[in-house]
Write a structure and sequence with these properties.
Blueprint: H1 2-7, H2 9-22, H3 27-44, H4 55-64, H5 71-84, H6 87-99, H7 105-120, H8 124-141, H9 146-157, H10 167-176, H11 180-208, H12 232-256, H13 262-287, H14 294-318, H15 324-341, H16 347-380, H17 383-392, H18 397-412, H19 418-424, H20 426-435, H21 440-451, H22 462-470, H23 477-500, H24 530-534, E1 543-544, E2 559-560
Parallel strand pairs: 1-2
Helix pairs in contact: 2-3, 3-16, 4-16, 5-15, 5-16, 6-7, 6-8, 6-14, 7-8, 7-9, 7-11, 7-14, 8-9, 8-22, 9-22, 9-23, 10-11, 10-19, 10-21, 11-21, 11-23, 12-13, 12-14, 13-14, 14-15, 16-19, 17-20, 21-23
Amino acid sequence: MTEFIIANMAPIMFCALVVFLLSGFPVAFSLAANGLFFAVLGIEFGLLKPELLQALPNRIFGIMGNDTLLAIPFFTFMGLILERSGMAEDLLDTIGQLFGPMRGGIAYAVIFVGALLAATTGVVAASVISMGLISLPVMLRYGYDKRLASGVIAASGTLAQIIPPSLVLIVMADQLGRSVGDMYQAAFIPGLTLTAMYAVYVLVVSIFKPKWVPALPPEARNLREANGDSGVVSLLVLIVGSVLASFVVANIATKIHPAATSGEIGIFAASVGVIGAFLLALINRRMKLGLLSRMAEKIVFVLIPPLALIFLVLGTIFIGIATPTEGGGMGATGALILALMNRRLSWDLLKQAMNSTTRLSCFVMFILIGSTVFSLIFRGVNGDVWVEHLLSSLPGGNVGFLIVVNILFFLLAFFLDFFELAFILVPLVGPVADKLGIDLIWFGVLLGVNMQTSFMHPPFGFALFYLRSVAPKEVKTSDIYWGAVPFVVIQVIMVCLIIAFPGFVSVGSKVDMKEQIQLKIDPSSMDQDQGEKANGDAPPLNFSTEGEKSDSSPDSPQLNFSSDTEKK
């Protein structure tokens, strides 16, 4: 029995962790307790040395000093402030008026606002609860199908999982040792594609089941002109003018600064176009020029502030002006300014946001500390070697590995949330993917889209629980569950598309954030004279960066510790 345990310590340790988690014990303490228990067992059986546990304090202090993780409380605080500042209410009301005359107009508005909230908050709970409170009663009032309405709201809220500044992408980048900015840039197109797929689903439903998604009745459209006109033409003219202005500015900027990247020029030109539209609407309102319709003016004043915040946060991160942590700090400050402009900023609001931010941040830190304890002992009993052999020997090569890993994440998402999956499984499968030659940024975005399903899985999806907590009594829990199923299928299709067409995920420059420490020893130098050893003369050790010449004799062994921050 003892020999069997020694030979299979790694799989036994992993199975024991699954039992701990299924027992309902808190995840952070399950990870730590499991790691410490098998550490004692490994020391007793001679597999581990007690000195291994001396690495734990350094690892924990390394987590506490990780600047990348500071972005999590910043973006969480930003999202909670925006969620309580009235921005979601104004967006849903205004965009609902814009799409109202169309079948499924409110559903389109929910999807669009969900993507916009995802790009400004990055918090799933804030998006789902806000849209559930505001739009679900309206959709039910005008005859929307309960299942479709519930599914659209829950799925749109989970866009905060993949559209930057997503919290899961921050954790994913940290666990895979890659740049958060690169991860954000790579996830942008998949996030927008997923948003478009949700809208296409609503379009298909409106064609085959028009009674499920009726248009707003005329009496509910309150942003009309005095003559009854919708004012959409004025809005289209404003959009076309802004796009042309951005195009002209981009051409001029390219000629003036030929060395600038396309991303930098694009963000600058788009900012000029957006600011120009806002100034035109402001002048039109102050001077009562009558150049814009009520619809166009309302949309400008409601959309521009969150768009400006997106440009401030994501734009500075994408072009390299700010780190994600600095971008999160600017975003939190911008959220406070928006709340102040909407006259919603109060001490109670700040207190609620800070309490929620502290709870979530502590939750993340405790899970990360627990996973560190587990991973240290798991690697000590050669668990990483066991996982590597298990996954790299799968039939089908890289494709087989990707299919098995995605199925594993999909199934475990029924029971674990995205933080737990990211901290437990990603450190195990990431090194295997790297050795198989799979780009880790692409791999991280793929897993991020997959883990999005953890919010939508019946019966344990957190987005479903959030919606259930604010849904009216006439909406049954079964309606919410069945409404989520088509959107889970869409998310799975998106995972398949990323595997089939890797170009969905692309990023210009990729930075390896983990230092690669190389130990170089000259074998010929180990043949030392026995007399030197007898006299107690130890060969000199040379600590130098790679490529640095040593002053020691060629007969002495050289230890070369080199830090390389570029991906090899």
